[in-house]
Amino acid sequence: MIENNETIDEFLARYTDDVEEAVRKAAAQxxxxxxxxxAAHEVDQKAGPHDLVTDADxxxxxxxxxxxxxxxxxSVVVGEEAVxxxxxxxxxxxxxxxxxxxxxxxGTRQFVRGEEGFCTLVALAQHGVVxxxxxxxxxxxxxxxxxxxxxxxxxxxxxxxxxxxxxxxLRVATSHPxxxxxxxxxxxxxxRTPGVAPRPCGSAGLEYLAVARGESDATAFSWEAAxxxxxxxxxxxxxxxxxxxRTGEPFRITGxxxxxxxxxxxxxxxxxxxALLAGEV
Length: 281
Fold this sequence. Notes:
This protein is of the alpha+beta class.
């Protein structure tokens, strides 16, 4: 538990293991037991047939909200499902208090299908700066972590994204067509050009992990929801990568970004993707 006058960095130096334990327990108690065992009444639609929520999402978020707020008194939690119930609560990301940004099941559609491509995302931020993140894939028990200035790790092994191999097509995960407007589809069509191999993304958190590992070269996403991006953007940064919006500025979790934006293995790749999205090449 954070002490009086303790900074976020000091808190993280002492309690990252406790956050990891909370993430793992939320998955073990509320997510994994429902994976491939969901009953019809445990799955609901939010905005439409492609926007799903399950009992696993709701209950895991409740577990994390209690556990994380208890670790860091005075902090607030911005979770996807709580914001759906009360959109005004999203404004806490722009407030003064430390904020936990939570996506209990990122890749809910894959989770509902019984596939492995889902994860739990947690990030700790303040004043628009992400200080730490946890990306946990329960299906294969992989945990990626990042603390600002201390590097990115997957199951304890340091991650280095590195530049793409010269001459190879860039592998770019883009916003899935099911979740894009006609205008966004037109923007993303700019990536269908020689030397680039775009494909629809799955779980955003796992796509960021793929970039941090050097398995994918970049993302091109057209939405701002901080719970999808905060954890992964820090993971990519700490693995040596970067992120840029279409105007060439870093993505801001507080919003107001020029979309689409990219996260990439290195600065040169980010600039190339942004230039294509902006119609400059």
